[in-house]
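Morning run. Coffee first, then this:
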Amino acid sequence: VTPKDPDVAAVRGPEDRLTITVGVGASLFDGRFGLEGARPPGLTRMPRFPGDRLEREGCHGDLSVQVCAQHPDAVLHVVRDLARETTGLLRARWRADGFVNPPRPEGSPRSFTG
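And here it is:
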């Protein structure tokens, strides 16, 4: 993958271990896109759970996209390309950055949250 933005490094290849995971929400099948007949059985709007304190603007949506790689530059490159190539089609509602430290000589990988 070559960068369209000279300020962002390209994905270097298999060593970046890039993965993109896409989840679909029930609203994707509400008739706006002609997909109402393709809705998977059992896919419903996520219910509220006791103790939820979620911000309304960050809840529900058509798609959830998770981009992961060994290096944050690779993730940034892909996210910028996705945003550029889907202008007018997709709108980010929220974003959460995270990481896992490189493997330790022994034990489980750790992040700031444990």
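The longest helix spans residues 72-85. Good start to the day.
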